[in-house]
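May I ask for an example protein's residues together with how it folds?

___
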Amino acid sequence: MTKTSIIILGGGFAGISAAMYLDKTLARRADIEVTLINRENFILFTPMLHEVAAGDLYPGDIVNPIRRILHHVKFVQAEVQAVDLSARRVRCLGGLARLEFEFEFDHLLLTLGSETNFFGLPGVSEWAVTMKSLFDAAMLRNRVLALLEEATLQSDSATRRRLLTFVTAGGGFAGAETTGALNDFVREVVRYYPDLSEELVRVVIVHPGDFLLPELGEELGNYAERKLRERKVEVIKGVRVASYDGSLVTMTDVKSIPASTLIWTAGVKPSPVIAPLPGQKERGRLLVNEFLSVPGVTGLWAAGDCAAVPDSKTRGFHPPTAQHGLREGVVVAKNIEAAILGHPLKPFIFTTLGQLATIGRRTGVALVFGIKFSGFVAWFLWRTVYLMKLPRLPKKLRVMVGWTLDLFFARDIEQMLTLRDVEALSDLAGRIRARAARQTSTARASMPEAVVHDQLK
């Protein structure tokens, strides 16, 4: 029996919500196969990344294994390399050995999300710390602790100050939340280092706009700035980071800040898989119609950060946020189902419910249904809303326990991953890839020439 193949590329909010809907519907049918392909075998709850970076939560608290969420949708852990629309195939690489394989599709849903955009600035991609993945958040926490340990070994005050200076580029949600959480973390744990003082700690946020958190408006942005300044965070507005060499952050006004850490949250761009695809682009995102399908290409759909979804109310585009991605995923899954069953498609219509951000020390800002909140109420609202949105009950309970313990006990200051561990893992991965390459070479050498040529082709 010939099966209709539905491939979902990407396991973010849009991809996983689409897969969860299809898991309960089309994926149960014997004549349809639904496959989700993602780089990781888990879904990451990105709104809580800054809490991992600050040691409020453990990395495992904000991830959920995809194989436990999906029961009828096939899951493949691999990295998407290219999409061939003419052959209707997806090329992927998987495993430590980087094995290459392909999937055929009848319907393809692109939910590949976005990646960090460094805008080609000198040294930034090589030296800056990003906040896009679980590894980024965990390594930022380990980096802070490593720098504190290194600062105790230095006798020069200027060197110590450079080691304990943390600069964040970008004053949007990711930048403001990360800066607030990091500032609390560093200033709380520095007291466990008798050779150091809090006066050596310097936390800076650089934002090109006139006020922080522009998505929430000037009033809440100014409130966030005022609270951060009260907690000794330096806020520099109206300029951008121009370059970074690992020890000196240079800005567009030619001023510079000696710093061993630059946290880059100043821009994202769609997955590079999107660029070569046919169709109109909107700032790199694939333009779709109101049904979330790509005009002119049968069976091609897109949602989430990699898609430019038109908003009929504003005549613009829906913002690439989690609440939009979750709902886009459900609508596009329903439309794929409707296309297969011959039913009419439904347009995506949604209005932002609200946006929330924390800025450290049980303080937050929120705009919900047009009503503005700030302070403890906004912080409590943030935790309540995102706890409800966190998938699966076991994870909710673990986060609740972590937050409760945080009220009574100090943060842990152990390094979970050291440089020696990273080097050992890198060496192990290198040995595995080398062995896989030797095995592949040996296997090809033992094949007839025609078979080898056919496999390479």
Q: What stands out?
A: The chain has a mean pLDDT of 91. The domain at 124-266+354-408 is CATH 3.50.50.100 (FAD/NAD(P)-binding domain).
